[in-house]
Amino acid sequence: MKVKLLFSLLMILAAGTTYAQKKYQPNWESLDSRPTPQWFEEAKFGIFIHWGPYSVPAWSPKGTYSEWYQYWMQTKGLFGNGNFKGDEVYNYHVKTYGEDFDYYRFGEQFTADLFDPDQWAALFEEAGAKYVVITSKHHDGYTLWPNKEANDRGFAWNSVEIGSKRDLLGDLTAAVKKTDVKMGFYYSLYEWFHPWWQNDRPRFVTDHFHPQFKDLIESYQPDIVWGDGEWEMPAEDWKTPELLAWLFNESSVKDKIVINDRWGKGIRKKHGGYFTTEYEAGANFSNPWEECRGMGFSFGYNQNEDAEDYNSPQTLILMLVNVVSSGGNLLLDIGPDGRGKIPPIMQERLRQMGQWLKINGEAIYGTKTWKKPFQWTAEGSRDFKPEKQHYTGGDFILKLTVDPEPGYAAKEIFFTQKAGNLYLITPKWPSEELVVRDVNATRASKITLLSTNQALSWENKGNDLVIKMPAFDPNTFSDADHYAFVFKITAPKQ
């Protein structure tokens, strides 16, 4: 018996070791079989950061991405929300800096002299974010860390040698890792004007992209790597299946790294660790997924945007709730300026979100989708679509909730669930009663309003649950409470 028991234990240990050491092959069937680390699906809210030399001019027409400044300027092309001639950024650049002022000179002016990584990290915690993703390198090729491949275009093009003279990525990573927030890096596969990219793409991939990517991973050991700039070539030409196999099998982060879906032309929403959407509305996937968008339209700081171009705190909270009820995460972008200052309006929005999450976060973090993500009002059409735009503006969620167009229904309740509890999130305060269709409570149920922890009366009426609302007293609520109200039902009837 002892021999049999020992043999069984050895077999179990061997099976566990085999699973832990599974070797992933450089093909999508194998790579997609790797589970996305659980923490990512539970996190729900992350902060995106676009920061680089483009943060110095920090300008593009409203409705466009300012971090594309170099491309807009040098190609005299432009796209986004609006009607453009294409030469708007070029004309602005010539008028402001002169025709002979090269984009690469912005690297020298990218001083980051006001950058305080500990203050940034504290703000991210206060916002209630569970992870951060910063641009280690955008499409202009400038790296926020010392890297020899950044200089293979013929001149120094990294933050340690040009501009701030600091390892900005290393400094922020060290600060964030003092907190419970996970650290992630955005990384652009391609670079607009790198000479090898323009003239010898196979060399760009093997001698620039792959070694630079590996250096980034091994130097800072991130929790997430967020690929982008993949759309020009198929994954086979990028050789990303081979690179990801290295990441999963050999790298120092092989057991913890999370990846997205941007690793080659046509790969998005088909392969990768989680799917990504960008300024979209109404997404819903069986895979882990994430919606990314800015507080305004631009990811990089755009000094051309005004206060009215920024989404209100209620809009941002309702965006988050809308995404989470459908099983996704929200990656909300901020754009610091060239000196490393996070604009005050962005700081304020993050703090406002954090205030709401501090009270209502249990209905967000770690939750799963319920049998339906939301309940529509009984009357009206449910097919409202925002005006045709390249980027869906944040106000779409207001039209779907608190400010519907005439004749259209609204999402009046969002649902999430966790640990046997059902959460109802309402964009508006229900006047006298909240009717939840196709839901019943049980004798063991308790229904509370999270913001006040007040127990509420209720009754089942047929297939519906009717919650009796107390008189609304604004003095019992903080400003953040008004963005959305959360009701918790323990032991609901499933």
Automatic annotation (TrEMBL):
InterPro entries: FUC_metazoa-typ, Fucosidase_C, GH, Glyco_hydro_29, Glyco_hydro_29_N, Glyco_hydro_b. Keywords: Glycosidase, Hydrolase, Signal. The keyword Magnesium does not apply. Residues 410-490 form the Alpha-L-fucosidase C-terminal domain. This is alpha-L-fucosidase. Its EC number is 3.2.1.51. Alpha-L-fucosidase is responsible for hydrolyzing the alpha-1,6-linked fucose joined to the reducing-end N-acetylglucosamine of the carbohydrate moieties of glycoproteins. The lineage of its organism: Bacteria, Pseudomonadati, Bacteroidota, Cytophagia, Cytophagales. Residues 1-20 form the signal peptide. Belongs to the glycosyl hydrolase 29 family. Residues 13-362 form the Glycoside hydrolase family 29 N-terminal domain. It comes from the Bacteria. It is an enzyme of class 3 (hydrolase). Pfam families: Alpha_L_fucos, Fucosidase_C.
